[in-house]
Design brief:
single chain, 281 residues, alpha/beta, 8-stranded mixed β-sheet, 7 helices, 32% helix, globular
Length: 281
């Protein structure tokens, strides 16, 4: 994988002389009719665990990223290769949803600063429309009742707590609402969603773009592999992911936690009002 990553970075590179947000991908990547899965920082590191699991099990490869001149100056190292904080991955899996035939994954351990969110979201929507992506799914999590995750982007939702790990959905269009119903995921009736997920849902609704969020109840005290497994089980209805046993996923989540923490080790900038809690993991 490191040769692939290094080759793309050398060939494509991060855009020079940027004045704003820019999505940069390997020019050979075709995302027409793709399902775009977005995994930004979440309670219990659910989105990170899900993202790394999909990369491994769908054999996705690094194909580019999202850049902005005002993003924190951070470089993540994986398998000896420097990678951008907001990364894109793609592969050849077949999406199970009608009208969708491939998958693109966007992920980051970086909490995008509020002043940059709308500009980056606007660029993502322009890019996805220009490249004719089919639809988007945002992976997020909310803290169990009586707990707080401590993230500045933590969703605040009202839900009926059950003994099971609860999952809620938010749809930006009637089509995505129907998809959530088919997946038997109840709709979030009331709440506040912040950060990239909130901005993308709001923008998607105003633009009439087919985008939705899957949100799972998670324990904020540690990487919640159980919550991640529930999300992956629902994604299995959309993607060709193998049937999962929670046991192996729990073990894998522990390894992913170590990997994510290792990638972020020493990357967090000195605490200031503008940089505090910029990284999660």
């Amino acid at each position: 994988m490191n040769k692939v990553c290094a080759g793309i970075i050398r060939k494509e590179g991060c855009p020079d002389n940027m004045e704003g947000a820019k999505v940069w991908l390997d020019k050979s990547i075709d995302i027409e009719d793709a399902l775009v899965v977005c995994c930004f920082p979440s309670v219990g590191m659910v989105s990170s665990v899900v993202a790394h699991f999909l990369i491994d099990h769908l054999e996705l490869e690094f194909v580019g990223g999202v850049a902005h001149p005002k993003l924190p100056a951070i470089c993540l190292i994986q398998d000896g290769v420097p990678l951008p904080a907001i990364r894109a991955y793609s592969g050849k899996p077949v999406c199970k949803i009608e009208g969708c035939d491939k998958v693109v994954l966007l992920m980051s351990e970086l909490i995008v600063p509020d002043p940059l969110v709308h500009e980056i979201v606007s660029e993502l929507f322009a890019w996805s429309k220009n490249e004719k992506a089919a639809m988007g799914v945002l992976i997020d999590a909310f803290a169990r009742k009586g707990m707080k995750g401590g993230l500045p982007t933590e969703p605040m939702v009202e839900y009926e707590d059950t003994e099971a790990i609860d999952v809620l959905g938010v749809a930006a269009t009637p089509l995505m609402n129907e998809l959530l119903e088919k997946m038997e995921i109840p709709l979030l009736e009331q709440g506040v969603i912040k950060g990239m997920t909130g901005a993308m849902l709001s923008e998607g609704a105003s633009r009439g773009r087919n985008i939705m969020s899957l949100m799972v109840e998670a324990d904020p005290r540690y990487p919640d592999a159980g919550a991640a497994a529930v999300i992956i089980e629902h994604l299995n209805k959309m993607l060709p992911v193998i049937d999962l046993d929670h046991g192996p996923l729990l073990e894998e989540a522990k390894l992913l936690e170590e990997q994510i923490r290792g990638m972020m080790e020493g990357a967090e900038p000195e605490t200031t009002p503008s940089t505090n809690s910029m990284l999660y993991g």
